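[retry 2/3] SUF system Fe-S cluster assembly regulator: previous attempt timed out, resubmitting with same input.
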Amino acid sequence: MLRMGKLTDYGIVLMSYFAANRDLLHSAHSLADAVKVPLPTVRKVLKLLSHAGLLNSERGASGGYTLSRQANSITVAQIITAIEGPIALTECVSDDSHCSQETHCAVQTNWSRINDAVFHALDEVKLSDMLAPQSSAGTSPIVFYSSYNELSKATLQDGEFHD
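[retry 2/3] SUF system Fe-S cluster assembly regulator: success.
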């Protein structure tokens, strides 16, 4: 099963809260209260997001955290990478591969293609998309391609898919 860790889930929740409350400077305490996550966990996630350049932090009594840029220029892939490290579904597609089968593996190229597809799908979803509610018709601002055939009809230009 592919699953993000709880810290990553909390990171996306926190980043969504920042995006929805953009005009405020947020302390770790106020964030923990607002999103109902324990303070030590919030502090750990804030540190990771800050080190990745997704948050700005100001020290001092009146300090706090803000998004480093607009929510529509931060992707879910960037948030996941900030907390989990580079997105790699298998050992052989990670930058730090130590797989003994790598030199003669027949499926490594396909795993690379799958990993790239997952990364690009996550990179297409912006933090601002996470705030948009689904309409009553069940549509979402997040567009996914339901099959490889539909995806193969699309072209990738400047990191974006075009039909």
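[retry 2/3] SUF system Fe-S cluster assembly regulator: The chain has a mean pLDDT of 82.
[retry 2/3] clearing retry counter.
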